[in-house]
Amino acid sequence: MLPQETIRRKRSGEPLSREEIARFVAGVTDGSVSEGQVAAFAMAVWFNGMARDETVALTLAMRDSGDVLDWSHIDRPIADKHSTGGVGDNVSLVLAPIAAACGLAVPMISGRGLGHTGGTLDKLESIPGYTIMPSADLFRRTVKDIGCAIIGQTTALAPADKRIYAIRDVTATVDSVPLITASILSKKLAAGLQSLVLDVKVGNGAFMTEISEAETLARSLVEVANGAGVKTSALITDMNQPLADAAGNAVEIANCIAFLKSEKTGTRLERIVLAFAAEMLVLSGLEKDATAAEAKAAQALASGAAAETFGRMVHALGGPADLMEKAGAYLQPAPVILAVTASKAGYLVSCDTRGVGLAVIELGGGRSRPDDAIDHRVGFDRLLPLGTKVEKGGEIGRVHAANAADAARASARLAEIYRIAPETPSPAPDILTRISG
Ligand code: URA
User: Fold this and answer.
1) Which sequence positions are flagged as catalytic?
2) Which residues' Cβ are closer than 6 Å to ligand 1?
3) Which of 346, 331, 361, 338 is closest to 392 using CA atoms?
4) Which of the two ends of the chain, N or C, has the fewest CB atoms closer than 10 A to its terminal CB?
5) Mean confidence (pLDDT) of the chain
6) Are 57 and 180 in contact, with CB atoms under 8 Å apart?
7) How large a percentage of the chain has pLDDT more than 70?
8) Domain assignment of residue 394, given as a range
9) How far is residue 329 CA from its own chain's centroid?
10) Is the full-model pTM beyond 0.85?
11) Do 262 and 368 sit in the same domain of this protein?
């Protein structure tokens, strides 16, 4: 079928067959479908949506547009987690080594910052020598020998998604549930996973601000991934404040190292990470129930096994051998570090989380254009969680900036981002709901 016929049928609300979707995607990959036709197709899907079997067909066709990794040489369960993106979202960095230390193999293909959200790859590039694009052989060896490797998407994995995503990005067609579903899952399925846990974030620092939207996306992801043969569940988690107490790149790596060394116990980050680790262990069949699985993950953290795994992964992928012992010697500090103080006494009751992410970008820690270079040194740390009581003039966080003017601007911004009120807020649950297949 001609691409324009497929577009016409989708535009008119007619169901597309598996074969015609596969043919359209093959044309996207080999270039015979033009940029205008991809844009028109995406817009037709944006308006008319896709039935579940159409979304499964699109996902599988996009997966098959490139290589599908084969892990048959590894006898551990192959598992991963994916987040829809947040601020101070350190979960992947610490979860992969915890899961690996518990016996899973985690080939984690991560992304760069998107919009106001941070990107795992940008954070990892704060570590001198760490390569996010290792050879296929090094990637495979690292996953086999150490249990996890966090790397970037190669051109060989789901190339159709790369082209479609770039066109969606500039044609106002990113926010379509079937297109997001196929985009995320085509890459995850190409990574050759057996099970997948999704962190669908909701709140003022997430792409989905309403729980109903987050549930719709989570259901679509879970149903399509299970339909494609990967055991998948989703946790919808709160993103109405930064997840870690740091937001940026090097500051989040420092936070991750401190976390893995058990210096961040009792935090929201710890509760969420352990819940995801438990979900991964149960879904993959390594543990029978969530309580035992969470205890196993907590033990991997407390014993230092997860910290050791992270350190070995960093070294295997080109970073220093002693990062865990001497992080301060490797993570470049910002020239100016400034405390941000409370303008009055009271409780921290709310936070404009998206504003925190945008402030990181303004400091130079994120991008306004895809080819922008970023300053890994900048960001915020020591951010207090909502509900904390503060005194007038007390510290609510710190700015890391390239110069004094940027520091002053970001400090004033952060002071406005947090609302202080006399009454303590009612605590929000960390995990709002679980969606299983
Ligand atoms: N992340 C992706 O990889 N794709 C989308 O469409 C949205 C978020």
Assistant:
1) 80-83, 120, 168, 183, 187-188
2) 165, 174, 179-180, 183-184
3) 346
4) N
5) 96
6) no
7) 100
8) 333-421
9) 27
10) yes
11) no
